Amino acid sequence: MVKLPIYLDNAATTSVDPRVAEKMMACLTADGVFGNPASRSHSFGWQADEAVAVARQQVADLVNADPKEIVWTSGATESDNLAIKGVAHFYQKKGRHIITCKTEHKAVLDTCRQLEREGFDVTYLDPEPNGLLDLDKLQAAMRDDTILVSIMHVNNEIGVIQDIAAIGEMTRARGILFHVDAAQSAGKVAIDLQKLKVDLMSFSAHKIYGPKGIGALYVRRKPRVRIESQIHGGGHERGMRSGTLATHQIVGMGEAFRIAGEEMEADNARILQLRNRLWNSLKDIEEVYLNGDLEHRVAGNLNVSFNYVEGESLVMALKNLAVSSGSACTSASLEPSYVLRSLGRNDELAHSSIRFSIGRFTTVEEIDYTIDAVRNSIGRLRELSPLWEMYQEGIDLNSVQWAAH
Amino acid sequence: MAYSEKVIDHYENPRNVGAFTKDEKNVGTGMVGAPACGDVMKLQIKVNDNGVIEDARFKTYGCGSAIASSSLLTEWVRGKTLDEAMAIKNTDIAEELALPPVKIHCSVLAEDAIRAAISDYQKKTAE
Question: Is ipTM strictly over 0.85?
């Protein structure tokens, strides 16, 4: 018997790996490494500083970077803010144009909106219907005053993987800086910053079995990238991000990244098998649509729209499954997912989408339970749906005059 | 979001799901809402010679609160005259189901649905 509820929301956050938690607990109490890493005058500080150095190396190792290029932050949102505002403020005399994509995380989009209020000019590219960027359109959007391109590696909702290697070649050739939000890709997709021409990259710990509240920003040294700090204080992190380092969080992130480096390949193979098992058992349901490209996609993500069924009621029917709905009725607003809308999905399909995100601790029994639960719920809710009834009667829903409210 | 027990009960055991034949003279059909807005309600009433609603059916595309609002409505209108049914207010539904403020529109939609069904019936009988 599977334990309920089943957690299939690993793109939102993951549980902390017990091995990570153990390392963290050794950095809190009086008999542990609790010192301030900035304390230079005693062994408590030296030990903490050493623990932070190890973690910095572990994070750098996963992405083949130099530890000096890693700046600790509170998470990917802060990293995105620091990268984009930091570059914009430092290089604004060179140009004031930034390019990003409509399907970026809000941490990027809202930061760009803020810069627009400060007088910067931002181009928001439309993705193709499969969620990927057309690089010719990116090329066409580049201008002489473009200082930064910010494109995420893996999309949080639909899991598609952008070709950051190709984008890096394009930006480097034009002397434009390139920032990548890698919150959803680090530890899931191989990243080699010696090869990729990426200048800034945002990381998060809690998407790969580390703790919440800690992240990092990669800032390239060769060729050197400059950013203006956004948080001022004691000059920590070479002046780029002040604030006492949270040793236990940092050690947790380091251990999570170390484990990811060692187990990514095996994890991905297993997770992909589970994802395929799930999709293969759902795709034959009538009027089911996969959102986002299937090939260029991270292993753990499956985002599906079930036409004629409303997303929030589906989430309610799947009460034993922890999943996300693209119908943001589940959150504060009543707007359908802006990511799915950007792909050209209509409101109905955006409202009826479910994101399953499979993780390290998901089992095959849980996937089988999920398959049964989804198939039963879709059948039940369609029996309740006037739209399904009309579809079955052959009525074109687009020809109906709806009374919008 | 936490739903009230009554919403969950109606959602899990919806009353009077289904459809009557639209063309029958004693059947009134109301369809309100829009797919793009995330909810569509179809409510049907069957009216006897004395002008009393003797049966009702619904189908709803929408969130749990929308399904519960329409399910509850089918229970309430049975045995009521058209005038009595017209007097049902969205606030009564919202109160009965303890709908949170963001879900009040579901009860408004249910009120619209019964009015649309009654108006459809009256139009038919007037012909």
Answer: yes
